[in-house]
Amino acid sequence: MENAPPDLVRGPIQEERLSSPCPVCGRANLVSRSVPLDLPYFGEALQTTLRCEDCGYRHADLLLTRTREPRRVSLRVDHPDRLNARVARSASCTVRIPELGARMDPGPRSEAFVTNVEGLLHWFRDAALGAKALASSKRARADAARAVVRLDECTEGRRLFTLILEDSTGNSDVLHEDAVREGLTPEEVTHLRAPEPTIELRDLRTGGTQPEG
Question: Is this model's pTM higher than 0.85 or not?
Answer without folding.
Answer: no
